[in-house]
Records
---
Amino acid sequence: MITIKRILMDYETVQSGIGQMPQFSWELASSERNVKQEAYRLQIAEDEAFETLVFDSGVVASEESAHIAPEGVRLASLTRYFVRVQVKAGGEESGYSETASFLTAILEPDQWKAEFISAETEADAENSKGTYLRKEFQVEKTVKNAYVCVTALGLYNLYLNGKKVGGDEMTPGWTSYHKHLCYQTYEITDLLKNGQNAVGAMLGAGWYKGLMGFLHERNNYGKQTALLAQILIRYEDGTEEVLATDASWKGADSPVLFAEIYDGEIYDARKEIAGWCEAGLDDASWRGVEIVPYKKEVLTAQGAGKPAEMTKLPAQSIFTTPQGDQVIDFGQNLTGWIHVKAAGKTGDVIRLDCFETLDAAGNVYLDNLRGAKESFTYTFGKDGEIEYHPSFTFMGFRYAKIVAFPGEPQTENFTAYAVHSNMRETGTFETSMPELNQLWHNILWGMKGNFLDIPTDCPQRDERLGWTGDAQIFCRTASYLMNTYTFYSKWLKDVAADQTPEGGVPHVVPDLLTPKASIVNDWLLSQGSHSAAAWADVAVINPWTMYLTFGDTKILEEQYGSMKAWIDFMKTHAVDYIWNYKLQFGDWVALDAEEGSYFGATPNDLTCTAYFAYSTGLFVKIAKVLEREADAKEYQELYEKIVKKFQATFFDAEGKMTAQTQTAHIVALYFGLTPEEYKETTVQGLLRLLEKENGHLVTGFVGTPYFCHALSQNGCVKEAYELLLKDDFPSWLYQVKKGATTVWEHWDGLKPDGTMWSPDMNSFNHYAYGAIGEWLFRVAAGLETSEEQPGYKHTVIYPRIGGGLTSVKAEYDSAYGPVGSFWRTEGDLVTLTVKVPVNATAEICLDGAKEVLDADGLDFVVKEGCMSAETGSGVYTIRWKR
């Protein structure tokens, strides 16, 4: 029997406020094997009974169950549409699926009636207080449905009749505000009431006007916070009413005396105004608002992926340090905030200072926060019990120092919440080795801690910027862990928006460095605030990774101009196809750097030119996918010239690399830049360099993500596992042995003797080195998507057995359904169970198979030195001897 388990809309189960027709995918289920879809019928309606259809595909003879894009449909703004699908597969017809729905946003720019309004003036540029905004309105007829579209310059929380609208946090997030600003859409039908209503908002400085960046500059985008909100009410009699922010609203200072991203929040409940967002308040003393001019053309609807409280973590213990500080331990390094429940009297104060780790003596360690305070303070406004958490900041922490608290604090007074962009977890991974499982946990929590609206480097110190290099090297791992499509699609719009006119890509996105460079920092201007190899290549590598993961060409189309501009920038600034440009980070924080330096020993000419070739090669593939044949031909010729120059420059006549570093050999091998006749020499050279370090890596940001791949792709699976499973410094498992719950910025952030790396740059939640996660999935578990049929339409399942592990189990929740691999060993006997979703196929390869004992109905043949079989959907268990 064929059934439809779910419908996805742009890879999400929920879309609330989208600006265009989504693409549709559906997951099928069947107890039979080798089931493929033969036909489908997709319907979209304005009502749940599907009596008012706006689209009916009819019966379409097609195997496609993903990336279905209905054409010729004119959607209406602020309208909920209902979706269902029926399929024929395996000779059977399904019933209609359960109904999914999506809500549109404002689809036509001229439908915006609202203006940005502010309770601040430009005289408030130097403060980071919070403000209230409010407006009362009358509802006199029966409401059919109602919606609000809302955003802010700064951060906002919206309330209607005393209740918060939606469950999102830190909205509207951080974008290149003058070029791209997201707005959110919520249904508010159930929050309205007959008679008098009140809408209110609290605003905070956020990324928009608060202190941000290396230069500690304020007002990076503007000098006053502002709200844009537009409510549409539809009545049962067919009439409509629009309520929009305008000069008639009123404003006041809120109890938030101070709130910034780095330094936390100060909240004085004595300044609360009871009923401020409810009808009937006497607001005669409230002040008028200012209209803030702003281009509405940059507004973009955001239907999913908004930050929220995602995971609840109760306090594990409260203890006293040797220095006498009371400290709360939540047992996990995380990003978010703390909910506090307490009883006190008017004027009593709660203050918590958040931090990541204890020093060697077990005391509070704040030095690595640099200038960030990570503190929040609450002052009681009345006698009694309260519950409070910050709203316009976030902290990176495991611990919190109790600076002030009324009474004796207990663990039940404190609950941490991890706050990050709402992404469905898609990947699971488990092995027979607890330390490796903890590493996977750390990688996942490193992602949770640094995917709060943008991909940050770290969540605790006075930085928290969208470093492009970190985002690039972690992208494939991130896309196994969670559904990243919405997250990266949004952020890549800012990558494109912030590119220089020549096509250069900033070091951080949103770009806080380039706009200030010419004004504040002559050194930064001269050295370059954009276009570092591996960092800027995010413009090409991340869209390609999205394509591999989801099989989606839309993101390639959207980012094509950005990708091409970046390749052209490198071409323009290359000298005889050797690319280098101003400030380069190179193999950042590699251990082969000179004493006191963060720059690894691999020459910039080599790493830059390697990435020039790699990104150009990927761009050729993308041009072919999009059938841009002229571009494919032009850039293929460019690619060949770069590779030829790389090989002539960085290999000597005997086939040895001119740079004797691990990273040089790794990128030459993984990027396919090694002459075929020199490949074995290069592999042996890498093994010698590894042996020179007693089997340890000394790589940084450029070499580390690909180290195990460079080994396993070249016949050195044993050495790749040995490298992975090292547990002394430097290694991934060294951090695990030291009690890490996230991935560190430095291999020795906490040194074997208990001392710390220099506090100026020593984050204990820095996901970049967690890029090893993709090797665990792609090689150890053996789940690899196909370039020819991406998005797990076809999967190559080829787990590599090794490392002394007796089992590895992994599963990825693709658009077609779960793809899984579970292998276990008993001596030389291997048992592999694979899962292939309906309407998909796989190639199963048996590592080191000498004799297949149970093929479970599959036909295994020798292919490229490995026993392999092609199969369709189903669950299969194969046993073989190695």
---
Amino acid sequence: MNNIPDYLKKPLKELPFVILDLETTGFKPQQAGITEVALISIQNGKEEIFETLVNPELPIPREITNLTGITDEMVADKPTISQVLPILETLFQETIFVAHNVPFDWSFLDFYFRLHLKRPLRMPSLCTLRLARKFLGLKSNKLASVADHFGISLVNAHRAMNDTVAVRDILYMMLENLEQKGIKNGADLYHHHLIFPDCPPTR
């Protein structure tokens, strides 16, 4: 743990985060595509928002449209993931990847990094689902349940930016809880094995 990058040694609420949610056409990246990307980049106390619908280059199953409201017509003229990846690559630099169920979102992005950028996705990551399971003791750790636990509004779930905003708010509530447990900075997150240094375990 001595090789922790300097940018991760800051107090918890000063750490650089990129909080992300994807909507997809299915559950396995080899068989499915990304239909929406939303992220909030937080660095030096400033937030930068990026969101776009994505053309998955394959039909969106009806059950996915029923869940997300995203139709083939909505994504027909949108960029493909290969066109979006350079933007994500820039926003990911020297940040911590945050999602509610990191292995899911990571699996898609790592697949496309390897396919289009010819390298794996490698960066520190922090999973709010894993934090909820470890510290909250809830019957359900789904995003809506954790948001409800903290009194966080989640309207129109399964649209990427709505989910991302909820994850951001959950993250900062969880960071407050961790501070009360004596976990004060990014190095402490590493020492308590709450950050995956390079990549998360597979799902």
---
Amino acid sequence: MLWRIFPKELAGFLGNCAILAIDSPLFATDKRRLEPCRMSDISIGSPIDRSDRQGNALLVLLLAVLLVGALAASFYLTEDGRTYFVLWFLAGLATIGVMGLFLLAIGVLQIAGRSARNDLTKLITDSSYQGILVTDTESRVIYANKQYMALAGAAEGAVVPPVERLFTGASDVSEAIYRLAQAARERRSHVEELRMAPGLDGHAAAAWYKIRVRPVERNGRHESIWSVVDVTADRKSEEGAVQELQLAVNFLDHAPAGFFSAEPSGNIAYMNATLSGWLDYDIAQSLGDSGLTLKQIAASGGAALLDAVTGVAGQVKTEVIDLDLRRRGGQALPVRLLHRVSYGHDGMPGPSRTIVLNRSQGIDTSEGRAAEVRFARFFHNTPMAIATVRRDGQINQTNASFARLFGDQLKLGGDGDRSVAGALIEKDRPLLIESLKAVTGGQTDVAPIDVTLTGGQRSARIFVTPVADRQGGDEAAIVYLLDTTEQRALQEQFTQAQKMQAVGQLAGGVAHDFNNVLTAIIGYSDLLLASHRPTDPSFQDIMQIKQNANRAASLVRQLLAFSRRQTLRPQVIQLNDAVSDVQMLLKRLLGEKVELDVRYGRDLWPIKADVNQFEQVVVNLAVNARDAMPNGGKLTLRTSNVTDTQSAAYNYKGLAEADYVLLEVEDTGTGMSAEVMEKIFEPFFTTKEIGKGTGLGLSMVFGIIKQSNGYIFCDSAIGRGTTFRIFLPRHIITAEEIASVKAEESKVATPQDLTGQGTILLVEDEEAVRAFGARALRSRGYTVLEAGTGVEALELVEDHGDEIVMVVSDVVMPEMDGPTLFTELKKRGRNYQFVFASGYAEEAFKKNLPEAEQESFAFLPKPYSLKQLIEAVKQVKS
């Protein structure tokens, strides 16, 4: 019926359904591939959304085909059948429509695409202050909210441009957009901030935009979410704040007063232009960790005065301080500081805030300026520490020297003990308290007291005087302190040196007399051994006499080593070779309980020392280390080169900065206390049991090292072992020494004929020694003239001068000693060959001879044996 009544209308309806199906959003994806979405049907401010779920185009076509097919089938029915068909067909469509509306109303059926949408989220997105845009992988717009539409200025019928087309212009803008687009293609997040210059893309004024892109995945498709925010207002506000800050800094920089801020470490964190101009520093180079410090700009210990100001937690402490600052050229600048420091809740100080008032002549015109500046300079530049104290002993005011001296002991400005007595060791505090009581009681002449500061490392002499005119103030006395640490150290060193010298002189004198006795004993023992066969019963007794005499001679050598009067035969050696030669001996001496670890340094410099005496040094130190490890342990020997800068780093008193070769002898033994370490190099001092040590071992080591121009130091602590460090000066080998070594190496050892002939003048004040020497020389074929003193020797020269070919003389004799005899003979034209025999070192008397004659004699150390005497004479004659 409807078909008959409205045939054209029904056909048009069905045709339009097919056309709408093709134009519907179901085909939007294919259509968007051809051209961007047009906004002809959307006004500015209306969001567009093409993110609905896609329908099935084939089902829509099938529905259209069914409708057209039903229309065509109706032509093959009778008129009555066609009427019933149309009625039933329309009734079915109506029923489906009513059921669909019912299901839609109760929520069972939803419009395609909108069922998956969160209406609240969309509402938030649509109304967001940020411009939000969603694009696919080919930069086609899927969604744009109202704010983005407004930013894009998308009018009706206009194309909604993507971000890449919306922002164009200068190279920096294009580069930023390129980076964002590249991030979108690589599916990663990225943020850029753009500045659009005035006149660019229609911007009347400069504008800032923050653009962010991030990837998302929806229904298996990769999309990008763009957000665009106009941050122009924020940037203009920041620019205004920066301008205000720059204006404030400009005001501070060019204020008529200086200003600086210092960190608790002393680094200058800020300095205004006024102060940097006064001090003649470049402000750009004077700040930061590598810039200026308080010690650099504060003269005469002013930094210590500032560091000494402290406070309690939460306090803001302000001090007014007059002192001199130091210009870059070293000139003084008188200033007054208003120094303020804030302390945190933990009591730690923060950066200072310090105003600097220039008190130079012509700038500060206040009354009394000159007198105040002079007093401040006098007060702070004096090397004597000065402080005013109250009746209770608490400090009121100090100068820079006082703050520098007591910086580690006192907390000036806090609530703790700020008394001078608090900076002294316990036993010295009553002395100061009594002096303060005497001064406050009216006494004027109070004797100074010598005290030791807390820690025991520094000492001072304190003078206490009363305040002349208190004028109602609380100051009761003035305390003057003079740092006597270096003076006391020098005094102790001088006293120790005097004591060691006195002991050395005594030891040397005793050793000299013993050497004469031992020379006679050893000499006559050799004469007896020469007249007895080994099978004689008395031969072994004579050998025992000689062996014990040699042991006594070893003790005498130790005494001479301590007094530095023994004879050394220095030669150029390699320290590693010397240590290696004695290594096997050390292993036998140490035993199985002590492990020996020798670590040789590479490319050691040569040294010049007596190799035999040096080996004795190593042996003595090793034996002492073994005795300090009764239960076993480890002894380590290390050798190395030490440059002049490295030697300074050891911080040993008396060690000159130079190149050294270092030997370290370290053990893991019981260690030593500080009291014992002070005496270890003194002769006859020992910590061993009676009968187990002479106390001469370390004193001999000390003497040998000192006589070799070296240094020895000891570091030890109870329970932590001991380390001895021996510094021997580096020796530069000369061409003559190289030639001498080669000559010695080329010599071939051949049997030596010890017999000889000629007249020898033997000068010796000890009759026993002279008699032995005469017999020994005569037994080898020489003619001997004997003299007891130098005067007798000159008389014999007058009578037998032409017969004498050699003089063998003692050094120390009454009336005329050996060097004087040598000089007198030279004056008389007697150029005899000369051999000096002495228990002292060769250098001990060589200085008494003329410089030209110091190498024209041979030396024979006492005690000597018969063979040593004959060899010395034979070597000189040859």
---
Amino acid sequence: MINKYKISLEKLKNYCDPDIFPYETTEDLKVDRELIGQDRAMEALKYGLSMKRKGYNIYVSGLSGTGKNSYSYIVAKDFANRKATPKDWCYVYNFDKPNNPIAISMEPGQGKRLKRLVKNSIRRIEEEIPKALSSKGYEDSKNNAFNANKKLASDVLEELNNFAAKDYNFMFKHSENGLLTIPLVDGKPMTDKDLDKLSDEEMEELANTSMELTQKSYDQIKEIKNIEEKLVAELEKLKEDAVSLAATEFIGPIQVEYRNNVDVNNFLQAMKKDIIKNYEMFLETEEANYMEKLLVRGDQKAYFLKRYSVNLFVDNSENKGAPIIREMNPNYYNLFGKFEYANELGVAKTDHTRIKAGSLHCANGGYIIIQARDILRNQYSWEALKRTLTMEKLKIENITGLSIAAETLDPEPIPLDIKVIVVGDYNTHHILYLYDEEFRKLFKIKADFDTEMEKTDKNILKIGNFVAYQCEVEKLLPFHKGAIASLIDLSSRISDEKNKLTSRFNELVEIIYEADGWARAEDKTIVDKEDIKKAVEKKRYRNNIYEERILEMIEDETLIIDTYGEKVGEINGLSVIDLGQYSFGRPTKITANTYFGKDGIINIEKEVDQSGSIHDKGVLILTGYLGERHAQDIQLSLSASITFEQSYDGIDGDSASSTELYVLLSSLAELPIKQGIAVTGSVNQKGKIQPIGGVNEKIEGFFRVCKVKGFKGGEGVIIPIQNVDNLMLADEVVKAVEDGVFSIYAISTIDQGIEILTGVKAGSRDENGDFEKDTVNRAVQDKLNIYAEINEESLND
């Protein structure tokens, strides 16, 4: 009766035929790093990268190991190589508004050249200005101007003195404060002694005469002052001309070279004017004493000359194509740049040369890849990134105040042209999409990397190419086609479906590396399938200590698991324990007691707060099943308790709901269950079996328990029929089934399962609505009828 539910041998594992590969080893294979099985993600990624509209940034989602990071970079790199190299950016001093440095762009490589040319020109100007102002030509011109104006002034003064002596008996004399009137005695200037001998009246008379003379001589005195001012202006003009000539000699060629760049020329012109205006700073050659240097906060001249320096902010001279940057630590300053400060006498000083670029500046014109979990941990970074993408401008500013007095700058923002790729998981994208309105506007493209792909011949061959690529890049031994076939089998096992392959290539890469290591340890020249098998077994051995301890406790009956005999109200359920790198199946004894009452089915785990909501739902479904199947015309008067024995942790999930129903039916029907058969599967209220996860681990887990306890005959596992496609069992389990010592059953209904477990027919209703005699369902119905009669009698009493 039960043999019809047994799964045939060929369905237990879908082996890959090594002959599918048209070569013996990967040495004979073309190397290819093509991404496999991610056509949907690649299409989305490429579409997003090709869109030049605002808001078409990309969120790449997927589990780790699917290649979402590496292939996002590879695809973006391919786009970057086809784009033009973006311009260099420099920050220069703003001579009109010193706190607002000016941003200048230029062709790649020109920024570095401009910085060098300006630096050299300032150094040469610094040398030439003192020479120009001490040259013979300059001195001759200065003397000529001085002599010509001196003669003019002397002629006017002589005329003035003749007038003063003749009419007022006075003369005029130059002093630091201008022209002074001096009284004469016998044609000679009066001395201080002569003045002391005069009476007050005489002194007052001299003062009045001097005032009258000054008033009468106003035009001549003004003419002399004009001549003096003219001399000063001419001398200043001579200096400016000399300085301008020196500056033009070295700045002019730069202006010619950058004649097509208006911003550069405006800066150079403003710089030349400032040099002429502040030429004295180029003449300070004597060292200041210590106190003077302290008071001016260091070398004033060097600090002053910094204004002429060019800050090469973004240098693309070495780039070929657009930049692509992986920002691994996206804090605010790493992304958006910062001001560097120098502490001078307790004041944090900065200038345009201390403005440092962030990764967004360096990636401007290209692409930047950021991990979602990293940037979301930096609140300032995430908000600033959205604001920057919205405004399409990069602005540098401090986000926190400094603890000391500090200078501040407000540099000119730089236009932003960038494609941002944020890499994260599905849940993060879902939360951002629901609750962050700006995210929806700015990240319109989602590239979702799948965890599995179809097991087609094309994809199988591509995995062979992938192995060949790893061998070449990592200098591994060549892999035999049998080894690659074993990797394909492992890939299907990881994907948990025989007709699928995993897209989480990092797990395959681990085995590839380790198989190479074991092959080398045995001095092999080729990696074969035995090396793959050993790598898998050794990896399992490194991680399965917990599983072995459980098996030891089952073997010495510390954990009570029966694998032979029959018992009423007892059954072996199956669960999966996930330890991260390793997961395994563990059987658990489930028991049930049934008796008259009105409490319904009591979930003992729930009563002690060890049951999750999904498990609670599964238990409640049992009542629905019993009500529909057995209580259409009677009142369900039942109390039952179900528990997972020797379970001290929380329980969740519904994969044991069918198991709990079987043990409940066994208790009601008083029919024993075969302890050598474990069960997994969910059930609905209609008695239909539903698929579960971890079917391979569960089967192998119970198989190992039976192996430890010793095979007595009849051992096996019942699974949902839908899970047959998930079977990729270990070779030893397949061999045991082939030898007839272990069986795997696939069912679709509770009736089928109970027949396998009890060896008794489930039974169906006849034309009168009664279940067949000597069946499980009839026994259950009879017991529930008895409980209903007892309940009715108690109500009548």
